[in-house]
Amino acid sequence: MKKILFIFFIAFSTFSFGKEMKLEGIFRGENVVILNPFAASGVGFCVYEVTVNGQLSTDEINSSSFEVDLSVFKLKKGDKISIIIKHKDGCSPKIVNPEVLKPQSTFNITSLKVEKEGTIRWTTTDENGSLPFIVEQYKWKKWVKVGTFDGIGTPSEHHYAVNIPIHSGKNRFRIKQIDYSNKPRYSAEVEFNSLAASVTFEPEKGKKVGDDIIFSAETQYEIFDFYGKLILKGKGKKVDVSKLLKGQYFLNFDNATETFNKK
Hints:
Elements: H1 2-15, E1 18-26, E2 32-35, E3 47-52, E4 55-56, E5 65-68, E6 80-88, E7 94-95, E8 108-115, E9 119-125, E10 132-139, E11 142-150, E12 158-163, E13 169-178, E14 184-186, E15 190-194, E16 201-202, E17 212-224, E18 230-240, E19 247-253, E20 256-262
Antiparallel strand pairs: 1-6, 2-5, 2-7, 3-4, 3-6, 8-9, 9-12, 10-11, 10-13, 13-14, 13-15, 16-17, 17-18, 17-19, 19-20
């Protein structure tokens, strides 16, 4: 009986000796700095092992702070990284600069064009981590999100294409990316002139609307109430407005903004 209890005690002690902190991201060419407090026992420091993508780090970790030198692991920019920091119970190391492993918006657009069939194409270099590219179109006196595409995130040349809505007249587009800093990064604008006829709607302006709004061609639309609250949005030639309350509304469609009164 004593032998069984002794074995259990050893197994439990080994399991509870330490904990792990995991940090994942991509390599951007910068090292990770770790604050390393003393162990709870007062003997030695908290961290006792660091691995990078399964390989043991040989950096000197017996210090109140240390740097994990990622250059020795022969990583390329954009490569995925998994850092495991093993530490003793009762203490917690702190990552000083976790942002160095987060994707950063650094793209350079070398080509940007809109094709007549409704496709925007762009070519990039110098991406530093995979982030979504957001395509915005300027209409209704604001920039509107009309498409997204996940970036590849490596420095070499990459080609992207997204289908986009084209309205009558002059169209303006731009590409946007937002990284961990929450500061948007924009491309230059690109323009496209459409020869399509302007879209109209019925009942005509000034007449009260009953159950439906009918457009002369399929179009994207938005309907706001008098206080600026978005009520309906979509794409089509017909909008069911039968459930709207009486009153005045704002209607965005094609490249125009109009008002209408619901009966």
